[in-house]
Amino acid sequence: MNFFQIIDQLAAVDPDVLDRFDSRRAVFNSLGSVAKRTALAATPLFVGALFQKAYAGTKSTPAEVLNYALTLELLEADYYRLFLAAGTLPAGADTAAITQIKKHEDAHVALLTSAIRAAGGTPVTGSPTAGVRFKPSAFPATYAGQLQVAQVLEDAGVRAYKGRAAELVGTTLLTTALQIHSVEARHAAHIRRMRGQQPWVSNGDDLAAHPVYSSGVTATPSTTVTTAGGTFGIPAYTAPSPAENNIVQVGLPITTAFGTTAPNYPYSPANAAAAFDEYLQAAEVLDASRAGGLLA
Amino acid sequence: MSDNLQPLYTPIKRRSFFTYAGATALVLAGCSKDSDPTTSTPGTISLGAGDVGVLNYAYALEQLEAAFYAQVVKTPAADFLAGELAYFTQIAAHEAIHRDFLKAAITKEKVGSLLQDLTPIFTTINFSSRNSVLTAAKLFEDLGVAAYNGAGILLKSQAYLTVAGQIASVEARHAALVRDLLTPGSFAADDQIDANGLDKQMTPTDVIAAAQSFITQQLDASLVGK
């Protein structure tokens, strides 16, 4: 992707292109050096967010970013409510772990709800019977199946926070989002081990082929989400996010970029992929193949 | 990048700006506020300012973690339980990759600003003791998570913010595992996650203070992100 070429072409047909970016300084901040331009070329996320803000009618506000996060937290919290009520959890460590995780998701719901109000927005809501909640028909019958959905939800959450953190740059909400993001990763690591999987996303995972770990959606998603009677904007879907088995970061092929001489090099594709979790854009997370398909 | 760049581009006709963006980017790079790591006080190495400072800060922590796990794998504790060495072997590779990646990113970002190789001090860690190794690993991983969580807001570049997040969640996965190995079920215990369900976040100065006893060189993080 040649970012400057795209800008030049846009400027040729749209003299006001630069006025469409809501903050020229934001553009400069990220285009300060040749190295950063190179980095950007590998970051469709940033470019996509920039153009969505420039051209879409729905400029994402911090409240909209938080409503997106709140939607996912409500889904998770309701899922763990069903999980604890299902009666399948062995007493002891397993029940304690899921109880601890649900406590965090409930806290995230409360925190995000108040943060959205503080930002002047209207938080989405959910309850066991209305609003944002887990689709009852998608709830698995077996304990193994229930743990599997928990893993998918947590890993999707980790990818989802990464996918929109850049939109919160310059606000203290960014730090809060990052503090939630790492908690979701801790949850994911623990649930993965409850399932006999590696704590990190591994090429050898039994769910490696699940859409949460792959990339791209086929549908043409909307830039608004309507749920629980509320509507919030999300960035337009541009290019697919990297799959979790990606081994190229900021243009660097991780396996061989730093050396090829044994015994330290090259790094294995499995380690190169596991060392970096990937982001996922909102439209991808909310697709029916991922979290969107689990919403009632 | 900072406010003092404003006069650089305001006089340029906005419409034509991007025609010259390639050249301007070079000018801006030359005007970067990011300073080279320099000796601020005698015997102290500054991690630098701006985004390069943040990257050097992360690089310092990843150097420390990579060296630690390399030693864990080289001299594994005799009382490691089944599967634990395999975990540490993978974590050692992840941390070495993070270290090498950051080194390459800093070199690409600004030539001459790379933090030197650090000399770790692991004399307080008994590598033949599982408990000692896990206790140290927990300290390093939880500290790393708090460091990345606190550093995000210091980054100006959204590209680097995203990639820092990509590393941070892997550190959180390590932290959860190490905590569970040390105390089963403590992956996200109340001593680490607060009542709002938030993980810890720390400033670079506080993180370096916590890590300093494991590093020979005296590091100064006071300019990081500024």
Structure description:
Chain A: InterPro entries: Ferritin-like_SF. Chain A: This is Ferritin-like domain-containing protein. Chain A: It holds the Pfam family Ferritin_2. The complex is a heterodimer of chains A (296) and B (226). By secondary structure, chain A is mainly α. The two termini of chain A are 38 Å apart. Chain A has helices at 3-13, 17-20, 24-30, 34-41, 44-55, 62-85, 93-118, 143-164, 173-194, 269-274, 282-285; strands at 224-227, 230-233, 248-249, 252-253. In chain A, 49% of the residues lie in helices and 4% in strands. In chain A, the strands form 2 sheets. In chain A, strands 1-2 form a two-stranded antiparallel ribbon. Chain B is globular, with a radius of gyration of 20 Å. Chain B starts with 5 loop residues before the first helix and ends in a 6-residue tail after the last strand. Chain B is 55% helix and 3% strand. Chain B has helices at residues 6-9, 14-17, 21-30, 50-74, 84-109, 130-151, 158-182, 204-211, and strands at 44-46, 218-220. The relative contact order of chain B is 0.17. Chain B is mainly alpha-helical and 226 residues long. Chain B has 8 helices and 2 strands; from the N terminus they run H-H-H-E-H-H-H-H-H-E. In chain B, helix 6 (130-151) packs antiparallel against helix 7 (158-182). Chain B has a two-stranded parallel sheet with strand order 1-2. At the A-B interface, helix 1, helix 3, helix 4, helix 5 and helix 7 of A face helix 2, helix 3, helix 5, helix 6 and helix 7 of B.
Radius of gyration of chain B: 20 Å
Overall outline of chain A: globular
Order of helices and strands of chain B: HHHEHHHHHE
Q: What is the average per-residue confidence, as pLDDT of chain B, rounded to a whole number?
A: 86
Mean pLDDT of chain A: 84
Tell me the major beta sheet of chain B.
2 strands, parallel
Roughly what percent helix of chain B?
Answer: 40-55%
Main sheet: strands, sense, barrel of chain A: 2 strands, antiparallel
Q: Approximately how much helix is present in the residues of chain A?
A: 40-55%
Oligomer: heterodimer
Q: Given the helix and strand composition of chain A, which structural class is it?
A: mainly alpha
Q: Count up the helices of chain B.
A: 8
C-alpha-based Rg of chain A, rounded: 20 Å
- Uncertain parts of chain B: 1-39
- How far apart the termini of chain A lie comes to 38 Å
Pfam family, one (chain B): Ferritin_2
Organism (chain B): Hymenobacter monticola
Protein name (chain B): Ferritin-like domain-containing protein
InterPro entries (chain B): Ferritin-like_SF (IPR009078)
